User: What shape does this take?
Amino acid sequence: MKSKIKSGLVLTAALALFGFVPNLVSASEVMLTGASCFPIGSPPGRPFEAFVAEINARGKGVVQIDLKGGAPAIGSPFTLTQKMAKGAYDMVGCPEAYFGNVLPEAPVLRFSDHTYAELRKNGALDYVQKLLAEKNIRYIARYHDFGPFYLWLSKPITGPDLTGLNLRVAPVYTAFFKSLGATVQRSNYGQVYTYMENNTVQGYGWPALGWNPAWVKVTKYLVEPGFYHASLHGIVNLKTWNSLTQAQQDVLTSVGLEFEGNAEETSAVGGSAMKKQKDWLASEGMEFITMEGADRAKWVAAASDAGWAEVLERSPEHGAALKKLFSK
Assistant: This one.
């Protein structure tokens, strides 16, 4: 018996010397690199930090994420997904607005009339997954939703006419604001306060949740209703994904789906988080401009029409198919 054990240990050592220990390799912990499209510690950046922390907590001994930093400190948020697809990072956390330059159809992720559970069931996310695979990207989950976007202003408007306003934009709502007469200017997250303070812009689009409290000093009005979904998505380099074991993939998927489910409740327009935020805004002197009747109908229709028109122009074939899956 002792000789058998000894010979077995010798064989194992010999195999290890030449790298032939598949069980040990498959069971080893893998370290992936991650990056955020928002500054670390900022309101919109914290959900990805929480997502990474949960992966690391559950993935001990299996898979870990080394969060390298957030944009713009590590570079433009608009090129982060491109870099990830080329192998600079393994995983990023971004709003789809920041990877529309990689996937022309990405805006559909903010237009959905369905819950993400429904999108997974009706094949909508499978369709997006196939399109992303062509770009060497694997979709994991929507790990957070800040609810709808809103227009925030330094001066009031009386209806859905934005003529005469210069607004800070991201790709999310550029087409929408321009369709109502606004001129637009892009900037990074850190420039919003300065641009509002010196009147370079008179407004910007942003969700109420994940909003920077410091902006209350330069922002006087919030326009309702909101539009689209301010969602954040976890995506992974496809080659990296394919190199992972099933157990490692399962950690990323299970945490992603849990966060995705929780996001539905967190982002609810009438939910406790949104009420608490709007109550605080009101206490700080924020005034709410609410579109009613025909103005409201025009506002809502303009957001939908401009958004989908942009997708259909960029991708006629896929855009039409996706509209059927994402719209009711």
The chain has two domains: 2-146+230-266, 149-229+269-326.
